[in-house]
TrEMBL record:
Protein's recorded name: Flagellar biosynthetic protein FlhB
Keywords, alphabetical: Bacterial flagellum protein export, Membrane, Protein transport, Transmembrane, Transmembrane helix, Transport
Gene3D superfamilies reported for this sequence: secretion proteins EscU
Segments traversing the membrane: 27-48, 86-109, 145-165, 185-210
Organism: Vreelandella titanicae BH1
Record has Protein transport as a keyword: yes
One Gene Ontology biological process: protein secretion
Function recorded in the entry: Required for formation of the rod structure in the basal body of the flagellar apparatus. Together with FliI and FliH, may constitute the export apparatus of flagellin.
Source superkingdom: Bacteria
Record-level GO cellular component terms: plasma membrane
Compositional bias segments (type: Basic and acidic residues): 1-10, 221-234
Residue ranges of the region described as Disordered: 1-22, 221-247
Family stated for the protein in its record: Belongs to the type III secretion exporter family.
Length: 349
């Protein structure tokens, strides 16, 4: 039996899918930007500390040369001390700076810390030759090839230009000894380093945007996935629609608050006064539309008079309803029958 073709992933990923992917360690990574920032930081460190590093290494070499003229037992501790200084003051700061730049750059690119063991877990597709060939000839593989090609071409062009212009000077500098050779070599090396840094930084900045686009492209969803996710989050659509309809009806009922929506007034001008609304087919139960304490009852009653709202003088029932229900609430259970009798007497039912 032939299998049905897979559904096209044409919808953008939801925030939930991106969060779940992040928990699994699946994020947009940019190794090129990390490499570029490490190169920049290390180059600046070496440029600032080059004189101190050369002095320490030169001192260690000079001390080593003294092994031919001085006793080994007396010179060995001094050599160990100088070697430790070279390691601690020259190499370890470079290693520490590299680690710091890697961590900070990844935090910026990944937009926070990401920790998951799932990417390092062995998976069959990682050793599948067919999947490996697909990855090589995929869009991501083509992009990686083009980035590497751009960096190689940029460095090759810079190398050709620099050495075509400076090769003659480098050959002639040997006549005046080591200082001239060193100066000429550094003058040729500087544009190469600057070109490499610019090329790597440009590729790294472009790679961040590209990796995010590729990641969102890989995380796209089908319509079935979107419907399933929405159902898992919000529940069954039919039940949700019924609940929304019920909430909308209750909101509409609760919104009709005030003496102008009252069908019946219960109470007196010198006691508690409440307004009741009941419309057949609209309100399932009588609702409280307004209420007033004894010191405000006269004002509320005066507002109801122009509207010719029927009134039943029962201050005790009015007080019971007012203290147990708020505006928009159904009448309390213990008062339902009494209110119903009043509505029947007023020919509202």
């Amino acid at each position: 039996m032939s299998q049905q073709p897979s559904e096209e992933k044409s919808l953008p990923p939801s925030s939930k899918k991106l969060r779940d992917a992040r928990k699994k360690g699946q994020v947009a990574k940019s190794a090129d930007l990390v490499t570029a920032m490490v190169m920049l930081a290390c180059t600046l460190y070496i440029a600032i500390s080059v004189n101190d590093i050369i002095a320490r290494v030169q001192g260690l070499i000079d001390s080593t040369a003294r092994l031919y003229t001085e006793p080994f037992d007396t010179l060995w501790p001094q050599l160990m001390t100088q070697a430790g200084e070279v390691l601690l003051l020259s190499v370890l700061p470079l290693v520490g700076l590299t680690l710091l730049v890697i961590v900070l750059t990844n935090i910026v690119v990944l937009q926070g810390f990401v920790f998951s063991t799932e990417p390092v877990q062995p998976k069959p597709e990682n050793i599948d030759p067919v999947q490996g060939v697909k990855r090589i000839f995929s869009v991501r593989g083509l992009v990686e090839f083009l980035k590497s090609l751009f960096k190689m071409v940029a460095l090759a062009v810079a190398l050709v230009i620099v050495y075509r212009l400076g090769l003659q000077s480098l050959m002639e500098s040997s006549r005046c000894g080591y200082p001239c050779v060193q100066g000429t070599f550094l003058a040729l090396l500087q544009p190469l380093v600057i070109t490499a840094l610019i090329a790597f930084l440009l590729v790294g900045a472009f790679d961040v945007l590209l990796q995010r686009w590729l990641f969102e492209r890989d995380q796209r969803m089908t319509k079935t996935e979107q419907k399933r996710e929405r159902k898992d989050q919000e529940g069954d659509p039919t039940m949700n629609q019924a609940r929304r309809k019920q909430r909308r009806e209750m909101h509409e009922l609760n919104a009709k608050i005030g003496v102008q929506y009252s069908s019946l007034m219960i109470g007196t001008a010198d006691g508690w006064l409440v307004g009741i609304r009941y419309i057949r087919g609209e309100t399932p139960v009588p609702l409280v539309t307004c209420k007033a304490s004894p010191d405000q009852a006269a004002s509320l009653l005066a507002s109801a008079a122009p509207r010719r709202v029927p009134r039943v003088a029962d201050p005790r029932l009015a007080e019971l309803i007012a203290k147990r229900a708020g505006n928009g609430d159904p009448v309390p259970d213990g008062t339902f029958q009494a209110v119903a009798d009043m509505l029947v007497a007023a020919k509202l039912i």
